[in-house]
Amino acid sequence: MSASTPPHIPSARGQWGSRTGFILAAAGSAVGLGNIWKFPYITGDNGGGLFVLIYLVCIALVGLPIMAAEIMIGRAAGKQPVGAFEALHGGKTGWAVIGWLGVFAGFIILSYYVVVAGWSMDYTLKSISHFTDPIAERADEDAKRYRAATPLAVMRTTLIERRADHESTEPVAELRARAPKAAWNAWDKYNKAVEAALASGADADAARAVLFEDAAFAARVETAERLHAQMAQARARAKSDAEAYFGAMPDRQVRDEAETYQRRQHIAEEVGAAFGQVVADGWTATFWALLFMLATILVVAGGISGGIERVTTILMPLLIGIILVMVVYGMFQRGFSEAFSFVFSPDPSRLKASGILEALGHAFFTLSLGMGAMITYGSYQRRKEPLFKQSIAIAGIDTAVALLACLMLFPIIFSYGQEPGAGPGLVFKSMPLAFAEMGAGGMLLGILFFGLLVVAALTSAISLLEVVASYFIDQRGWSRNKAAWIIGGSIFIFALPSAFSFDPDFAMASWEPTFGKSFFDTMDYLASNWLLPMGGLLIAVYAGWFMPRRMRDAELEGLAPLVIRGWLVLIKYVAPVLVALVVLQKVGVLAID
Ligand code: TRP
User: Separation of 101 CA from ligand 1 center, angstroms?
Assistant: First the structure.
């Protein structure tokens, strides 16, 4: 602690008003954009059920113990992350680097988080103003015209192609996953060589023979070739199934289906283009980000119990209510059973090794771990709250919301013939498409859905700003008001490059061609893939090995010995080893694909 730091006066520091207040605020931090669009998407990407199971294991084995460690550190120190380690050691310590990492990460994450939150606000307003109505109308006209002008045979062929594609995607991907990347690379190389030989008039057999002198290479090509043949078979099977299906379908129904397909294609294109416009409009993004940041600043300036706790105890029940309404709606949709098995049926053949690492990395982001958010929230807690029960409650709410978000999104997506899609597109493109198809009720669902995103984002953004602002409050003696406004304002300025990163009229757009990722994605990548896992690793190691015994025992006092022993094993060995694996894989030391 530097000499200029005012002595720690507990009564002058904010505190949670109640136990539930703390849990709801912490759960509010955890439940965010990560739960509602990212989790459903990566779940789909990684084959559903088994990935969900592994994610749950990561939450239990890594997330929970680190959550408890963060709350414990904050509680014992009564300081935000930079000051916490110094307070625990009674002076300067290298562990304060965890706090600095956290302040830095909070700055970075919030700077792009407000942009996504801003898009959600934009879409809430769009839903209120029925933005999909004119799109649905134009699509309707287009589809009617298509129906009148297109020969029946063409319609049938189009439908067959599409169904065959749809039905064969999964089996083909599954077959592809059965061979390692090396086999497919060998297969590509082999085909290119043979092609080149044929093109130059050389002897293809000779070229083949040369390549196959390498026995390992030959074996790889053989594996790939065998699977390739099976993939072709799967495609052919899907095609003949589709032919049989549409061949037996009465003409009238074929026309209906073709018209529906054409309409959805049209809506999908326009809705996709609309998202492209939102993203490409830096000024509008800035406007919404500013509004959102103002809301975040006001809550943080309001203090712990008067601002954060008050707002989260209202918003969290609201958020859970909206999700339940939408899940119930989803349950009455045709696509519900498809959605349910998509999310919960384990399919080992579809899980890549990288899915395990992805599940672990997401466990950090979704639980707000690794940057001291829970240290900060824990530091406003009164002593002797049931540490593990609270951690379980927070992680439980977060996990429940993530699973419910899947059960809310996928039935709607499947019912309207959408693919589970990718990343931001899933939420901002697929959902409006479904809403457009629903007519009047769609507008209401749209408002609910995007409003939900805004609420979830706000209770998370608060925690991010709080980590950074509390440094200036605790360590620099700033007033809460001053810290909230100055830090919030600075982060907003830092959000500008993210807001303009997809706007072709501004220089930021050239970041992507230069660095391979947009500025926006670069910030996300930096935070989620580096800062959080590194921070999490350090926190686990600290809590397991270096935290003064006296302090740790005081925090654990009164808990069942078995529970304490279990936590110690997890925090000392299991969590650090697993996180270290992730970090090594990211650095490229471990090649897992
Ligand atoms: N957990 C939030 C989400 O899922 C994001 C978030 C808020 C966060 N605070 C954090 C992530 C602190 C990491 C660290 O959207």
Answer: 15
Note the pLDDT of residue 425.
66
Q: How far apart are CA 449 and CA 455, in angstroms?
A: 10
Does the Cβ of 459 fall within 6 Å of ligand 1? no
Q: Which atom of ligand 1 is nearest to the CA of 456?
A: 15
* Residue 342 Cα to ligand 1 middle (Å): 26
Q: Whose CA is closest to 37, among 498, 402, 459, 316? A: 402
Q: Which atom of ligand 1 is nearest to the CA of 461?
A: 7
User: Is 588's pLDDT higher than 80?
Assistant: no
Atom of ligand 1 nearest to the CA of 30: 1
355: Cβ–Cβ under 8 A, 6 or more apart, which residues?
Answer: 46, 47, 51, 54
pLDDT in tens, 113-138: 999 999 999 999 999 988 888 999 99
Whether residue 203 has pLDDT greater than 70: yes
Ligand 1 centroid to Cα of residue 57, in Å, is 19
Distance of CA 474 to the CA centre of its chain: 31
- Report the alpha-carbon distance of residue 48 to residue 343 in Å, rounded: 5
Q: What is the DSSP letter of 526?
A: I
Q: Are 289 and 495 in contact (CB under 8 A)?
A: yes
Ligand 1 contact, 223 CB (< 6 A) = no
Of the candidates 213, 214, 211, the residue with the CA atom closest to the CA atom of residue 188: 211
Q: For residue 121, how far is its CA from the centre of ligand 1 (angstroms)?
A: 19
Closest of 420, 418, 446 to residue 432, by C-alpha: 446
Residue of 38, 98, 107, 109 with the most ligand 1 atoms within 8 Å of its CB, for mutation: 109
Q: What residues contact residue 467 under an 8 Å CB cut-off, 6+ apart?
A: 80, 81, 102, 103, 106, 371, 372, 373, 376
Q: What mean pLDDT is predicted for residues 21-31?
A: 94
Burial of 383 (0-12, 13-18, 19+ CB in 10 A): exposed
